[in-house]
# Entry
Amino acid sequence: MNKKKISGNVVQIFKIMAMIFIFLVVVIIGTLYFLDEAKYTSFQKEILDEIHKDGTLKITITRYSDYARISITDKEIVGKIFNDLSSVELKKVKDFSSQKEYAVRIYQYENLGFEVTKDLKYIVIFKGSGNTKYKVLNDNNYLKTIKNLDLQITE
# Structure
């Protein structure tokens, strides 16, 4: 009888250990999933949702290749630029090696901005005193309006 009791205790301990192991695996997988999901966002969420549509807004755009620039306050053009950017999906990255082509600064109550690389595959978003780097996940010609603007070369 002693052997049966010891054998039963071993089985109970094994069951408890198996349940703890399964629980830990589920917790680890869940944590990794949520950490990976936290890397994905959109331009809409990171920039556009923070802009007050009813306030005065000024955008300055600089093209680094020739240092041409333009300042925009026209609400229709601003709306077109924001519409182009609204569906851009992003994934947070640590770094990238591409050169930047455009710098866009949005001035309202809080200064926001972003820079786009020459290959259009990466965006750096500036908020407050920090910046975050992202890879663009979808190719939707998100700089269509910006590329068609008449940027002036400053001396």
